[in-house]
Amino acid sequence: MSADKFSNPVVRWVDHRLPIFTFMDHELNEYPTPKNLNYFWNFGSLAGISLVIMIVTGIVLAMSYTPHVDYAFQSVERIMRDVNHGWLIRYIHMNGASFFFIVVFIHIFRGLYYGSYKAPRELLWILGVLILLLMMATAFMGYVLPWGQMSFWGATVITNLFSAIPLVGDSIVTLLWGGFSVDNPTLNRFFALHYLMPFLIVGVVILHLVALHRFGSNNPIGIDPSGPQDTVPFHPYYTIKDFFGLSIFLSLFAATIFFFPNFMGHPDNYIPANPMQTPAHIVPEWYFLPFYAILRAVPDKLGGVLAMFGAIAVLFILPWLDRSPIRSGNFRPIFRIFFWVFVADCIALGYLGGMPAEGIYVVLSRVATAWYFLHFLAILPLLSVIETPRPLPQSLSKSVLGGTALAGAASAVKEKV
Amino acid sequence: MTKTQTLKQGDIPANMGRRDFIVVASYAMAGIGLASVAWPLIDQMNPAADTLALASIEVDISKIEVGQAITVKWRGKPVFIRHRSETEITSAQSVQLSDLKDPQTDDERVTNPQFLVMIGVCTHLGCVPLGQKTGDVKGEYDGWFCPCHGSHYDSSGRIRKGPAPLNLEIPPYQFASDAVIKIG
Ligand code: HEM
Ligand code: FES
After folding, report:
1. Which of A249, A260, A237 is nearest to A104 (CA)?
2. Which atom of ligand 2 lies closest to the CA of B150?
3. What is the mean pLDDT of residues B78-96?
4. Deepest of A122, A234, B57, B85, by most Cβ within 10 A of its Cβ?
5. Residue A404: predicted pLDDT
6. What is the CA A132 to chain-centroid distance, rounded?
7. Residue B2 has what pLDDT?
8. What are chain A's domains?
9. B125 vs A: CB within 8 A
10. Contacts of A302 in chain B (CB under 8 A)
């Protein structure tokens, strides 16, 4: 990576003093990447792009938004009707949050299936969970800003979660509100924090990527590349694959924005906030539903809150719960079944979180919540002991090219492609 | 001339304890300094003086018919004022304390049993329970029902069933006259 690598003299001059081009070349161009990554590995870069989309549209929205209880709702309606392209910008930001969560959830389940949280990627995983937490906080506060009925009551219910903390709970809630209920001071500070937090996320994403590049990506068979024959340079192989995935992502995103922009939203949020009346059926945004179901499944206030935060906390210690040395679910016959049961369980929780808390739904939420924790706290630790994994391939190349391929044959094939 | 110590590597100087103390003391001072700068930055989030000053309100209750209720706004929250019927009062008074999650007699919750005054905010997570309007669902105990996560309150506003831990809160209030109450 000497400076001669770059033909442009200006680039060379800068790079000699500030090796930013060397850095980019190293991390984005020649960066050796396992050659067997499948499309589930697209979702990291999609998450990054979603974050950029959210920041850009958010900043321009802030230019027309007014964080005051008397004007917030109107200012959003004005953005929708009068501000040039305002409707487009708002619909991108609004649906962008949903797409961001879709992408990150798939990204996380990818990690769960392929064991990407295992050594030496524990910190990478923990930083990811931290990003998830920051995203949830950001999305929650953003949803309060339009000051509709769901904004207001969502904010009320979620801030009240903290009142469950013994002794200091009520003082914390008052501190969050800046008053005696969710009101103007609350809206103001939520706007300030909603503006700030995405930039904190950017910071953690950078750390996430530094940790990623330390050992490189995991891959679908979960064994480490044994040498250069098992990897390809990131550019052009994965840049092009990521761009292809991006084009599909953007098509779906655009279709949603133009044809069903309110599909994932709730109509009650187009009613201005009314602190004197709670809507008959309040639900959070869809991406919070599984956690909301866990909250409601426990018939005790503090217990429910602990279970809900516990559902995320357990992800932090996952690398130490699943002790199996085999990363990829492809070679773990029993784990694989439980993985899909767990996916179904999460989807069930999401469904139940959107249903009223009565009758059969309560019972089912309790079963699904119990399963969620059993999966992490009992099934995974147990499987690491009792499961017999299937034999692992000897190398990445062999798994890609079939059992008998030699290193020479591998490069021959690469030339043909 | 004073004696100077020459230290070889690995020697422990005689006054090491004193140096440790200085190091610890300076960390402690820096810590206290940081905390005292951080406090105003955090405490500014607490209610401001004008928010705290939000005064009391006076409500005319003479127009509330028996069995009816009104909702007024105090400190940004709904306050329920219900003119209870005889049946509601007797049923509220006849409940066994042992049946209650947050035991309180009806007497402790009212000044005048005919008028129940309480903050209309569910003690679970803060929704406004239904039961003020005629025709509202009143829950299994004929009082109020919170639709958010299914808490049932009785005709004294006490929690009977569901996730809420406490009875509906009673605000500070007094009867300014027979017809007017002052809340706050
Ligand atoms: C803003 C959110 C996020 C961004 C921008 C982001 C970005 C990325 C990128 C670009 C990669 C590398 C490419 C890839 O594997 O697809 C990656 C890998 C990874 N991420 Fe994230 N990520 C985010 C959130 C998360 C979350 C929430 C988790 C887990 C809870 C997570 C866990 C991981 C793991 C374990 C890897 C390594 C995966 C592997 O190589 O197999 N990430 N991330
Ligand atoms: S807020 Fe009333 S039951 Fe949850």
Report:
1. A249
2. 3
3. 94
4. A234
5. 47
6. 5
7. 56
8. 38-225+236-278 (1.20.810.10), 283-391 (1.10.287)
9. yes
10. 165
pLDDT, position A4? 67
Q: Would you give the distance in Å from CA A302 to the centre of its chain?
A: 26
Active site residue A398: no
Most confident residue range from A21-25, A125-129, A394-398: A125-129
Strands B151-154 vs B159-161: parallel, antiparallel or unpaired: antiparallel
Specify the 3-state DSSP secondary structure of B79. strand
Count of alpha carbons within 13 angstroms of residue A11, beta-carbon side: 13
DSSP3 helix / strand / coil % (chain B, rounded to 5): 25, 25, 50
Q: If you search the block for the tokens 């996380």, which residue do you land on? A: A108
Nearest to A92 by CA among A245, A225, A261: A261
Beta-bridge partners for B154: B142
Q: To the nearest whole angstrom, how far is the Cα of A298 from the nearest Cα of chain B?
A: 8
Q: How does pLDDT run across A78-91, given as a tens digit for each residue?
A: 999 999 999 999 99
Please, which pLDDT band fits residue B13 given cuts at 50, 70 and 90?
A: low
Q: Work out the average pLDDT over B109-138.
A: 93
Q: What pLDDT, on a 0 to 100 scale, did the predictor assign at position A15?
A: 94
Strand partners, B74: B77
Supply B42's token pair: 């955090």
| φ, ψ at B161 (rounded to 5°) | -155, 145
Over residues B8-25, the mean pLDDT reads 79
Phi-psi region of B69 (alpha: psi -120 to 50; beta: other; left: phi over 0): beta
Residues of B in contact with A162 (CB under 8 A): none
Compute the average pLDDT of residues B51-65. 87
Mean predicted confidence (pLDDT) in B143-168: 92
* Selected residue of A168, A183, A276 to mutate for chain B interface (largest B Cβ count, 10 A): A276
What is the rounded distance in angstroms from the CA atom of residue B61 to the CA atom of residue B177? 10
Q: To which residue do tokens 């200012």 refer?
A: A75
pLDDT at A278 over 60: yes
Are A180 and B73 inside 8 Å of each other by CB?
Answer: no
| Top-confidence residue, B56 or A272 | A272
